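BUG: 3D viewer hangs when loading the predicted structure for this chain

Environment: internal workstation, default settings.
Expected: structure renders.
Actual: progress bar stalls at 90%.

Input used:
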Amino acid sequence: MLEIHKSIVVDENQKPIAVQIPIKEFERMEEVIENYGLAKLMDEVADDEPVSVQEAKHFYGSLKRDVKS
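Structure tokens produced before the viewer hung:
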């Protein structure tokens, strides 16, 4: 499990309003979340029909044309 060293920031009424964590731990948390999202996306498309290289090139070419216009 990822250990998180956090500092809780409170307002003048001692109500928690924010959390500070070391940047390295934050970056690790981002990496874990991104990897989880990528795994979920891969699961979602696992049963999709594969496309040929030519079909992929045509598709990505159409995206470039859409961005330019």
